[in-house]
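Reagents: none. Just compute today. 2-oxoglutarate ferredoxin oxidoreductase subunit alpha.
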Amino acid sequence: MVPAGKEGIMERQFLKGNEAVAEAAILAGCRFFAGYPITPQNEIPEYMARRMPSVGGVFLQGESETASVCMVYGAAAMGTLAMTSSSGPGISLKAEGISTLAGACLPAVVVNVMRGGPGLGAIQAAQSDYLHATKALGHGGFRVIVLAPSTVQEAIDLTYKAFDLAVQYRNPVMVLMDGWIGSMMEPVTLPEAKEPVTFSYTGWGAKYFNPSGVGVNVVTSCLLEPEYQELLNIRAGEMYEEWKEKEVLAEEYLLDDAEYVIVAYGTAARAARTAIGELRGRGIRAGMIRPVSLYPFPVEHLKRLDRSRVKFLLDTEMTLPVQMMDDIRLAVADAIPVHSCGRSGGVILTNEEIAEAVEQAIAKEAR
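Predicted 3D structure written out:
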């Protein structure tokens, strides 16, 4: 058990990112976890195996990723807050189950600790799954809120928040964390433990699937009547629009006078912050927009940029080719040039490389 300080306030302590995510989930009320080993997220199921029994929860190592996400579906259908975690290839194997959770309007949290790809790729950390998480997590055109921490403390806070969002919207929520955040240790403060929430399917199904009120407790994503499937999709579309109004998260860093704006998340944003300090030391006015919610994407933050001052944007990611480019270009309607800076396959992107990329883009724009 993680010790509490005076009056129930959690003491500041030193935790690894993966273990911090697992503890945050338990403190948020998660009482069921099912998963399967894959690098670099293995500390999450290992931690859950130790901690879940102490809080009256259940840990299961499934025989596969597919089995694990189906177990999460079953737990969620019974009203239990549930979570699964994996990395790249494992998330692909969970895709049908995540789609089925969304189709049945069941809350769950999915953690993806990213590694290199495609295919089995490298076991080293990377940021290769932006497109997968935000555009095509599974079949059927569904969406999930995608939260991307850049510190261990933020990994705790966003995991804790993810459970509230999952219950509020009756939909899976993803925490997309690159493997460096999962592996590093930083001082953190844990939130207070919540009483485990149990939720009911009654009423939700009545409103969207069966206006007659008959059989509203049947949990299913297989709606054979076309009009009910359409009602589900109408409801989903309305929910996604609500997310864009209420659930966008982003950090703006030194934007007031910035002429060159880096767009980065996760570990890449940490390196970008250092690069910005170096660039400003050379008289180059750089700033950053850090998406915290990758979906919904912080479109308005980019739209608000002063286009008479900002000379270009730099999409900075630990993947090649970079994956946020289309979202950035759409947000600024191609009115501001967008350059890119990336590394791939588990190679960490340094602040020196980002600063050099900004200077090269400046020279290119000057031609």
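The longest strand covers residues 108-114.
Action item: order primers for follow-up constructs.
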